[in-house]
Structure formats: C-alpha cells, structure tokens
Design brief:
CATH superfamily of the largest domain: Aminoglycoside phosphotransferase (APH), C-terminal lobe
Shape: globular
Structural class: alpha+beta
Pfam families: APH, Mak_N_cap
CATH architecture of the largest domain: Alpha-Beta Complex
CATH class of the largest domain: Alpha Beta
Catalytic activity: D-maltose + ATP = alpha-maltose 1-phosphate + ADP + H(+)
Subunit structure: Monomer.
Helix content: 40-55%
Pathway: Glycan biosynthesis; glycogen biosynthesis
Largest sheet: 12 strands, antiparallel
Number of helices: 12
Number of domains: 2
Strand order of the largest sheet: 4-5-3-2-1-6-7-11-12-10-9-8
Strand content: 15-25%
Number of strands: 15
Protein name: Maltokinase
C-alpha cells in the first residue's frame, strides 16, 4: 500500500477537484473501503491531505486491474507492482458496485470504515456509464440502467467528504420527498463512517455518494439565457417562470426544514461578514475604493431594516445551477452551497434573498459576457434589465413577498455578491472586472436615489 499512495498523490494534483492548486498533496490514509467485484479489486480510499493550511479529507475510489482497460485510458492513475490503477468513477466495476450498494441497502467495509446504502427507489441494473467533464468539486456519472423507472441516472461521488449532512443530499432529497418536481428525484445515498480523533466520539459520519434522476434532453439555463440574449429574444416569460420556480423551491424548503426568526444579532453578524469581504476586496481590487463609503452606507441601511425569517436555501444560486426541461420547466440542481463558505455556514438557515440576489447577478453576467465578446452592450444590458424585472415579478407573485419592501436587504445581498465577484475577477480575469463594478455603481446609485 505504501507504493500506491505516492502514485495517487501525483495524479490527484492534476485533477480539477483538487483544492490546493499548485501544491503537492501530502496524503495519509484515514480509512479504506473494499468492494467484492469478481476479477478486480475495488478500494475506496479516504485520504487526508495536509498540504493546505486546513487539512481536507478526499474520497478516491480506485479500481486495481491486472490488465489495462483501453476504454478508460484517460482515467489511468498509474501502475504499481504490475497492477493498473483506475479512477473509480471511470471504471464500470466501481460504478456498478456503487449503484447496487445503494439500491440494495448494502454495506461496504474495510480498514477503519464502513458505508451503508440508503435506497429510495430501485434504479434497476447498471449497464454502462460515462463521467461528466468539467466539474470542479465532485464527479458525476451518467449511468445507463435496465429494469428501472428511468433509462439513465446520475451517480454523484463527493470528492471532499466531511462529518455531517451534505446539503446537496438532504435538501434535494427533502424537496423531492415533498412531491416537488423542481429538483431531480432522489434514488438513494451512500453514507460512510470513518475515524476522526477530533470528534468526542472518535468517529465521523457523512455522505459519500448519491444517485438521482438524470434529466435527459434538459438544457443548462446559462446556455439557454446566453443564446436568447445573443439573439435578442424576449426572455421575460421564461425569467418570470424561473422566479416562480425559485419561490416554489423556497416554499417547499420552508415547509420541510425549520425556519428561524431573524434576530438583530444575526443581522449584525451577516452585515459584519459583508464588511469584512469589502475590506479584503478593496485591498486587492482598488477600483472599489471610490465606492467604499457608498457601499458601507447600503450595508448600514440593511442592518437597520426588518429581515424575513431564516430558512434553508440553495446557497449558490445562479443560472448555471438550473436546467430547462421542455416537459417540466425549470429545475434546480447542486444544493451544496457557496464553495468558499464553511460547511457549518452552508447547512444552517439563511436568508432566501441571498438566492434571489445570486440569480439577479447571473442575469447581469449573461449581458456582461456577451459584451466581452463584442456584443451590443446597450442591447444586452436592456435584455438583462428586463430579465431581472421579470424574474423578480415571478418570485414575488409566487412567494407573496414584496421584494420592494425588502429592497434595502436585497440590495445589500446583491452588492455583497458584486463585491465578491469584483475580487474574483481582479484575481483571475482582470479584463472582466468591469462587469461586477458596473453592478456596484448601479446598486449604490439606486440605493441613494
């Protein structure tokens, strides 16, 4: 085993989901799970990486094969002692084991860990699979099945694992179980336990993987909106329907999970986070300095305003987290929350207006990205304004919430998002920094008008 981990470490450093970019992983085995698959060895490693300032726990499923698997050549991790190591999500042996363990309520055991399948719907028998490309933090697998209610499913493998609930599992499952079709149906999850000396009981328990409905023929909302804006198409009806869909999901979440009255202490804490982010952003993006006093004034008004109750929310809502289905309309996906927030922050009640603000910013980014590509700035800007208004109207109609009555709070959340975007663009795409800066100028201007 000692020869295997360095090979995995070298491979991990090149993966999109590896968090400590540019660093060399410093891995140790916390635990492993073994699956009985004829002819090959399947081991799911839980590996602690101490390269970043805060150690992270990764899940790395590995299939050990005596011969090469030509169709999975791109997923080859390396060769050790005459055995070929493959990344599990790309290997049918692991995918079949994962889906059937969940579907059968089965159990995987190994060195210091175990995992139990928790089925919701029998998915049928896996026949073939392929991995989605481009994901940043997890690995999703499209699985073709026979004998189940659907011909295809999505198996999502969580690369970063932690103690406690994964909101992508609990929120989507809760919404689905409530009868809503605004999220993919849940077919079940795999829950693991492993040693954790930092916990009083010495054991951590968390989600390792989930199986859910694959929405064949659906389109990414970002692409749908981008194409409509580029063609100058009226998007107002779809934007209104999207607002209604988001409000419906918020309504379902509030009925399934607890809501909490917002106290002044919680308001003050939220505004303090906004101000802290502004301080950091102003340091790295000096373009914000001229607006700092005006931004702080918006935050001050929000701190004095009346806030709606806190509830569970999506947490990282934008057009890229929504699918369009001709049969079902808008469908929300990926409920893990904002990646830069801690898991404790992502799993506690929050302000639904945070989701609204995120979607409003996404309309601006459609227009901004087209402007970057030489599009008619005035035309796409008008398209975004119309889309934002229609989305807000749809949300207000379905939720019964007068967004104008909460304008001070909503402006603060949207401004906080634009400040974050300015910092991101300054660090990664300086040529794009004008997109969020324009939003900052608009928001501080409208708030003082």
């Amino acid at each position: 085993m000692s020869a295997v981990i360095p090979v995995i470490a070298e491979w991990m450093a090149r993966q999109r989901w590896y968090q400590a970019k540019g660093a060399e992983p410093a891995l140790s085995v916390v635990a492993s799970l073994d699956g009985g698959v004829p002819g090959v060895r399947v081991t799911v490693f839980l590996l602690l990486d101490e390269a970043p300032a805060e150690p992270l726990l990764y899940q790395v499923p590995v299939v050990f094969r005596p011969t090469e698997l030509p169709e999975s050549r791109n997923a080859l991790i390396g060769e050790v002692d005459g055995r070929f190591l493959y990344d599990g999500p790309h290997d049918p042996a692991y995918v079949g084991l994962l889906v059937r363990t969940i579907a059968d309520g089965g159990r995987l055991e190994g060195s210091g860990a175990q995992a139990v399948g928790e089925p919701a719907i029998d998915p049928g028998t896996p026949r073939s699979s392929r991995v989605f490309s481009g994901e940043q933090s997890n690995t999703s697998i499209v699985v073709d099945v026979e004998g189940g209610p659907l011909p295809q499913l999505i198996a999502k493998v969580f690369r970063l694992v932690h103690h406690g609930e994964n909101p992508d599992v609990t929120l989507q499952s809760g919404i689905s179980a409530a009868g809503s079709d605004r999220v993919p149906r849940s077919f079940g999850v795999l829950t693991g336990s492993w040693p954790d000396p930092g916990r009083a009981e010495g054991v951590a328990v968390g989600h390792l993987a989930a199986v859910q409905e694959f929405l064949a023929g659906s389109e990414d909302a970002w692409r749908v909106a981008l194409q409509a804006a580029a063609a100058g198409e009226d998007f107002s009806e779809r934007a209104r329907a999207l607002g209604e869909a988001v409000a419906e999901v918020h309504e379902t979440l509030a009925s399934v999970f607890p809501t909490v009255r917002t106290t002044q202490a919680e308001i003050d804490a939220a505004v303090a986070v906004m101000r802290s982010r502004l301080t950091t952003a102003t340091t790295e993006a000096p373009q914000l300095a001229a607006h700092r006093a005006a931004i702080d004034a918006v935050y001050a008004r929000a701190a004095r305003a009346s806030w709606p109750a806190l509830q569970r929310i999506h947490g990282d809502l934008h057009l890229g987290q929504v699918l369009w289905s001709d049969r079902r309309g808008w469908i929300l996906i990926d409920f893990e929350g904002e990646p830069l927030r801690t898991m404790a922050e992502r799993t506690r009640p929050d302000m639904a207006l945070r989701d609204v603000a995120g979607m409003l910013r996404s309309f601006d980014y459609v227009a901004g990205s087209l402007g970057q590509d030489g599009g008619d700035t005035a035309a796409v800007g008008s398209w975004a304004t119309t889309g934002r208004r229609a989305f807000s109207a749809g949300y207000g109609t379905r939720s019964g919430i007068d967004l104008d009555a909460h304008r001070d709070v909503l402006d603060a959340f949207e401004l906080d998002k634009a400040v974050y975007e300015t910092l991101y663009e300054a660090r990664n795409r300086p040529a794009w920094v004008g997109i969020p800066l324009a939003a900052v100028e608009r928001l501080v201007g409208s708030s003082t008008a």
